[in-house]
Amino acid sequence: MSDFPPLKNDLLLRAARGEQTERAPVWVMRQAGRYLPEFRKVREDHEFFEICRTPELAKEITLQPIRRYTGLIDASIIFSDILVVPQAMGMEVLMNPGPHFPDPLNTPADIGKLTKTVDVNKELGYVFEAITVTRKALDGEVPLIGFCGAPWTLFAYMVEGGGTKTFQKSKTWLFQYPQESKDLLLRIADVCVDYLIGQVKAGAQVLQVFDSWAGELSPHHFAEFSLPSLQRISSGLRKAFADGSIPSVPLILFPKGANESLSDIAANAGYDVLGLDWCIEPDHARQLVGEKVALQGNMDPVMLYGGKDAIEREVKRVCEGFKKGGGTRGWIANLGHGITPGVDPEDLRWFFECIHKYSSAS
Ligand SMILES: Cc1c2[nH]c(c1CCC(=O)O)Cc1[nH]c(c(CCC(=O)O)c1C)Cc1[nH]c(c(CCC(=O)O)c1C)Cc1[nH]c(c(C)c1CCC(=O)O)C2
């Protein structure tokens, strides 16, 4: 493991441990993305996965929002995509402009086409390298978040072959081939464990698991299919923390839309922080999860199109919601999903300024 510059801003790490911070740390999902002109400029000359696979480019893009919002933003997230894991498992994934798998998993027989044993160092070493160079370049300014997709969300892409509104193919698998689905979900989870361990070894200081499609499942099926694979990931990491093979870092889970399952997730999934979407009020979420976990979120990303007054109003309202839920202890401010193209970067700056103003502990 390399020597890295000392961390100068540990707000996010403290909030993730459930501590009271002087104000809420803030970052946004997809903060290095198409709303930034400097991102679009790099994209003119480089394909999406080419950037992911080129550590210098991934580093540059990861740093773009950190440079633009110096002093306002409290975390960086490595530029990559959740779909690099299906690629590492032997699937072809294109981005044109959304994800497309030319050869998806149609039936369990197709599982045979996946790579038997995935060597993450060989397949995803480029991500580890990107993390190491980025962590050095950050010079301790803010912590660096590593991430992966949750097994259920990755499974849905691998079976559907791309985005979907109905989840018909992926959910049909759960009903028609429940055992094969569970086996595949755990197999994906095992790759995620190796991948996340590699990210921490490379310098990631926090990890986030994106279960973007958690809310597409009934609470019953979330508990049956997604939760065990999420537990497999957290327990694999906790084992590595305990035996000292990697430093212990906070684990964030973003189970988007699974609000009905929040108390079960808080009690049983094994994560330190739960990311919330905007469809639950902060005080209600706090009531459901108790004191066991920190919370992240949860403003509707669309409010960023509403102008400065609307942004200020929303931030104020959500800050009051967290305070009403028992205080801003253990709260990481974020959107309830990724920032979208077309947002004015100056409006995002205003969002950060409002969070600083309204989330202070006093
Ligand atoms: C479901 C999912 C994906 N990727 C991701 C998720 C989980 C989070 C979520 O629910 O949004 C995660 C992701 N994708 C990206 C990051 C980078 C880090 C960050 O800044 O947050 C992260 C953490 C970059 C990206 N990943 C993608 C882009 C835009 C592609 C481009 O540059 O053309 C970026 C910046 C492409 C992508 N990648 C994916 C989709 C559906 C798309 C196309 C739709 C879209 O454009 O939003 C899969």
TrEMBL record:
Residues 25-34, 145-161 form the Uroporphyrinogen decarboxylase (URO-D) domain. Its EC number is 4.1.1.37. It comes from the Eukaryota. Its main location: cytoplasm. Homodimer. The keyword rRNA-binding does not apply. Catalyzes the decarboxylation of four acetate groups of uroporphyrinogen-III to yield coproporphyrinogen-III. It is an enzyme of class 4 (lyase). Keywords: Cytoplasm, Decarboxylase, Lyase, Porphyrin biosynthesis. PROSITE patterns: UROD_1 (PS00906), UROD_2 (PS00907). Belongs to the uroporphyrinogen decarboxylase family. It is found in: Cytoplasm. It catalyses: uroporphyrinogen III + 4 H(+) = coproporphyrinogen III + 4 CO2. GO terms for biological process: protoporphyrinogen IX biosynthetic process. InterPro entries: UROD/MetE-like_sf, Uroporphyrinogen_deCO2ase_HemE, Uroporphyrinogen_deCOase. GO terms for cellular component: cytosol. PANTHER family: METHYLTETRAHYDROFOLATE:HOMOCYSTEINE METHYLTRANSFERASE RELATED, UROPORPHYRINOGEN DECARBOXYLASE. GO terms for molecular function: uroporphyrinogen decarboxylase activity. This is Uroporphyrinogen decarboxylase. Pathway: Porphyrin-containing compound metabolism; protoporphyrin-IX biosynthesis; coproporphyrinogen-III from 5-aminolevulinate: step 4/4. It holds the Pfam family URO-D.
